[in-house]
Amino acid sequence: MIQIRPRFRLLALLAAVALSAACDDGRALRDPSPEQLTQAAPDSFTVRFGTSAGDFEVRFIRAWSPLGVDRVYHLTRHGFYEGAKFFRNNPRVVQFGFSGQPALDSVWRANPIDDEPVVGTNRRGAVSFARAGPNTRDFQLFINRIDNPDYDSCCGGGYPPVGWITEGFEVIDRLYGQYGELEPAAQGRIMAEGNDYLRNRYPLLDSIESVRVVR
């Protein structure tokens, strides 16, 4: 009879746990249940984003935008933003959110969240959801590089902040920004072709390499 050493049993157990966690993440992102779509986030939590330009941390505050922060909590816990590119970078904002996988992005594009009143303010360092009309917040976020108070009320309801950068804002200033505003059809191309399009057309864009809820 072949005996399995304790060390190998432990390694096998750890591998099984890792595989199970990956499967759970996949289901939570690609086929979220109604309960997952409405699960409340903690009152506040911090996420560390590891990027190709360095790390930064964002403190998310549920009181500012309950639906928005619930969505961020779900996506960050399950690794949605790992691989996302900072595809828009101008003097006012840096924007990211497309996972780079069209099939995955389409799941969340089909599950937008309702609009909410603006409680925080779009000051330098604040993080808010992008939107393209009423009730269209889904997965795209932008970081305010400067104070943008007009974003609190413009565009049919404003852009409610969901959190702010507490560490590493210098990383935001280091992100590659020479492309500026991409061609008008770029977001449609990203949605349809994912990171393949961005790598071919805008190869120097920085990206998110890891996402972890740390506090």
From TrEMBL:
Highest taxon, organism lineage: Bacteria
One Pfam family hit: Pro_isomerase
Coiled-coil stretches: none
EC number: 5.2.1.8
Keyword Plastid (UniProt): no
Keywords: Isomerase, Rotamase, Signal
GO molecular function terms attached to this record: peptidyl-prolyl cis-trans isomerase activity
Enzyme kind, highest EC tier: isomerase
Domain PPIase cyclophilin-type span(s) in chain numbering: 50-175
Signal peptide location: 1-21
Name of the protein this chain belongs to: peptidylprolyl isomerase
